[in-house]
Design a protein that fits this description.
The structure holds two protein chains of two kinds. Chain A is built from ten helices and four strands; from the N terminus they run H-H-E-H-E-H-H-E-H-E-H-H-H-H. Chain A has helices at residues 2-20, 22-58, 72-84, 96-106, 108-114, 138-146, 160-200, 202-210, 215-251, 266-296; strands at residues 61-66, 88-94, 127-132, 151-156. The longest helix of chain A has 41 residues, at 160-200. The two termini of chain A are 26 Å apart. Chain B is an alpha/beta fold. Chain B is built from eight helices and ten strands. In chain B, the strands form two sheets. In chain B, strands 6-7-8-3-9-10 form a six-stranded mixed beta sheet, sandwiched between helices. Chain B has a four-stranded antiparallel beta sheet with strand order 2-1-4-5, with helices on one face. Chain B has a single domain, classed as P-loop containing nucleotide triphosphate hydrolases (Rossmann fold), CATH 3.40.50. In chain B, helix 3 (98-107) packs across helix 4 (113-126) and helix 5 (142-154) packs parallel to helix 6 (172-187). The chains are: A alpha+beta, B alpha/beta. Chain A binds chain B through residues 1-6, 9, 203-204, 206-215, 217, 299, and chain B through 51, 73-74, 76-81, 84-85, 91, 93, 104-105, 107-112, 152-153, 156.
């Protein structure tokens, strides 16, 4: 109860103080706003990119063609090795006879030609079809398989996938750096705002100490002020994220450029992102304020 | 019963000035003590040591069971809640009314509003300012401002009231008004320690007088006067 009352008084004071140092408060709030918009963008992008990757992974196969003169024994060996590879989700084996059979079913012409082959004339290869767990690690996995004996060659359909994924990775990395920079600048600006408040309330702080306020009593209003700056700064980014993403989602008809780049369904996704933004705003606000309090209150 | 015990206290400021030198002193509960001496004699330093604004370099200061010299910065508030301090320059907050200035000392503890109101009005009544609760400090005379400061210092019901030249800025008549208030507070059981160089007041009050000179305790009279000590 006592804590609640103290809290109430401090929140009132903190809001007053935000408006008293209006210009500096606005600077901090705008900086948080810009930062959070960027953070929001980064989260939306990376989450969607993850989603694209997952979709690609779902219908993406690697084909391992085996040597033509391979025998049962050797096929078993390869199978065992595939079982041991941690990045392989599942695999299917198609013998060259099965492949020939299914090819013949697709057209009369093929049936005429292939039907005349003797058993050892079949020029096709036995094939393992693999599904991978992590498509990002495709290169390692493939080079491991290529080292197996009796492998003719390894192929995976859309090499373009690689390019997408590395492009996504770069975008994510750049966003992280930019966001980190903005967070640092924001914390610094908030620290400055709080510093001004501390100076304008020096006498009050002195008297608070005199009449027996604990350090916590003295720090609390400034921390709350930082928190309020953070919350105010989060308002616009949250609106931008929610409305922006909805609009984007509807405008692009649920996917970008190609069908596998399916966008994440907005609900509840954007609300979670909004909460994350609010949380980051509050933490950055508190952190900046705490820095100033520790530095300038000398307690 | 002893409220304050000072043993072998020495205070040297960072600039090398020794303000208090090997001081031993005991103050009983309910005492009214004047600390006198010329400028630079260490009066203010003694008051500062008592409310832990300054830390002694040597010795022990025990107030109501708290070892003030050993008190960590973080824990100072525990001492401050047991005592009130009044200064020459009042230290009131100009943007707050009389009532708010006094209530301020209670609000930071998160007391219920009713209790704050009751205690604040009672303290203001005691200093005779009940009818000026809504005024701001700059609408009051110096004497009235000092009464507000006293009300703020005692609103918590402290055992000890420290005064650092509380009448230093006031004319003699007003000063006597302040002294009457302090006397009432003292009679209600609060120990008062007051640093002053107001000769008339000390002579008239006939209380215990401690004379400091260059940071040393020179004389300690049960019912002393100022004139025959310093002159």
């Amino acid at each position: 109860m006592r804590l609640l009352r103290t809290l109430g008084r401090n929140i009132r004071d903190a809001i007053k103080s935000v408006f008293r140092n209006f210009s500096l408060s606005m600077a901090s709030i705008s900086c948080i706003t810009i930062t959070l918009i960027l953070v929001g963008l980064a989260i939306l992008t990376s989450y969607n990119v993850d989603n694209f990757t997952k979709i690609i992974e779902q219908d993406f196969s690697v084909f391992v063609y085996l040597d033509k003169d391979i025998d049962e024994e050797e096929i078993k060996e390869i199978e065992e090795k595939l079982n041991k590879n941690p990045n392989i989700l599942e695999y299917d084996f198609d013998s060259k006879e099965e492949i020939a059979q299914s090819m013949m079913e697709t057209s009369e012409v093929l049936k005429n030609i292939m039907g005349k082959w003797e058993e050892d004339e079949n020029p096709l290869n036995d094939v393992f079809r693999l599904k991978l767990k992590e498509i990002r690690n495709i290169k390692t996995t493939i080079s491991e398989i290529e080292k197996f004996e009796n492998i003719s060659y390894v192929d995976y359909g859309e090499k373009i996938v690689n390019n997408y994924i590395s492009a996504f990775d770069i975008i994510e990395k750049i966003l992280i750096v930019v966001v980190a920079l903005f967070i640092i600048v924001t914390a610094f600006l908030i620290a400055n705002t709080i510093k001004l408040t501390i100076f304008s309330r020096r006498k009050e702080i002195e008297i608070m100490r005199l009449v027996g306020a604990s350090n916590f009593n003295i720090e609390l209003p400034f921390i709350i002020e930082g928190l309020i700056l953070g919350i105010f700064g989060a308002i616009i980014p949250i609106i931008v994220v929610i409305y922006g993403y909805y609009t984007f989602y509807i405008k692009y008809n649920e996917h970008l450029f190609s069908p596998f780049m399916k966008l994440v369904v907005p609900e509840p996704f954007i609300y979670i992102v909004a909460l994350i933004l609010l949380g980051i705003g509050m933490i950055v606000g508190m952190f900046g304020s705490l820095r100033a309090v520790r530095k300038y209150l000398k307690i | 019963m002893e409220l304050i015990r000072i043993r072998g206290v020495e205070k040297q400021y960072k600039n090398g000035v020794t303000a208090i030198c090997n001081l031993d002193l005991s103050i009983k509960k309910g005492d009214f003590v004047f600390v006198i001496g010329s400028s630079g004699s260490g009066k203010s330093t003694l008051i500062k040591l008592l409310h832990r604004e300054e830390k002694p370099n040597k010795g022990r200061i025990i107030i109501g069971g708290i070892d003030v010299a050993k008190l960590k910065n973080k824990k100072v508030y525990k001492l401050r809640r047991k005592l009130g301090v009044v200064f020459q320059d009042f230290k009131l907050l100009p943007r707050m009314t009389v009532y708010e200035n006094v209530a301020f000392a209670l609000e930071i503890f998160g007391l219920p509003k009713d209790e704050i109101r009751k205690k604040t009005i009672k303290a203001l009544e005691l200093v005779g300012l009940k009818n000026k609760v809504k005024q701001f400090p700059d609408q009051l005379s110096g004497g009235e401002q000092q009464r507000v400061a006293i009300a703020r210092a005692i609103v918590n019901g402290p055992k000890l009231l420290l005064c650092d030249e509380p009448t230093g800025n006031l004319d003699p008549d007003t000063s006597f008004g302040i002294m009457k208030v302090l006397e009432v507070i003292n009679k209600m059981g609060t120990t008062v320690v007051m640093a002053t160089h107001d000769k008339e007041i000390v002579d008239k009050m006939k209380k215990r007088v401690i004379l400091l000179e260059d940071g040393k305790l020179i004389k300690d009279y049960e019912k002393g006067t100022y004139s025959h000590e310093v002159a």
